């Protein structure tokens, strides 16, 4: 009976750890940030990679290089897409996770 309790706790902790993350996206560039309610045209996207379920970025997690200097106002969306989910099914076993970022130009 005690082994079932321990296994239940281990599975619960594993489930919680699989849906929690500390993903950080550094928003940069010379453009102003627009409110999320404003519509725009997608100008860039990228996938960011993280280790330890989002704790340590292992790829560039900044938008500096994505935003052209001619753009005046942008909206940034972070997304967990189906492709991220499918990748994370396999890489999550070794604590590697992905997250997507999309940049929209707002007029």
Task: Describe this protein's structure.
Helices cover 26% and strands 29% of the residues. The longest helix has 18 residues. It contains 2 helices and 5 strands, in the order αββββαβ. The protein is elongated, with a radius of gyration of 18 Å. With 107 residues, the protein is of the alpha+beta class. A 5-stranded mixed beta sheet has the order 1-4-5-2-3, with helices on one face. It has one domain. Strand 2 and strand 3 form a beta hairpin. The N and C termini lie far apart (63 Å).
Can I get a quick summary?
The chain contains two helices and five strands; from the N terminus they run H-E-E-E-E-H-E.
Instruction: Give the amount of beta strand, in percent.
Output: 25-35%
What series of H and E elements makes up the topology? HEEEEHE
| Total number of distinct structural domains | 1
Describe the biggest sheet?
Answer: 5 strands, mixed
Oligomer: single chain
Distance between the termini: 63 Å
Mean pLDDT: 87
- What's the arrangement of strands in the largest beta sheet? 1-4-5-2-3
Helix content: 25-40%
What is the secondary structure topology, with strand pairs?
Layout: H1 2-19, E1 32-33, E2 41-51, E3 56-57, E4 73-79, H2 82-91, E5 97-105
Parallel strand pairs: 1-4
Antiparallel strand pairs: 2-3, 2-5, 4-5
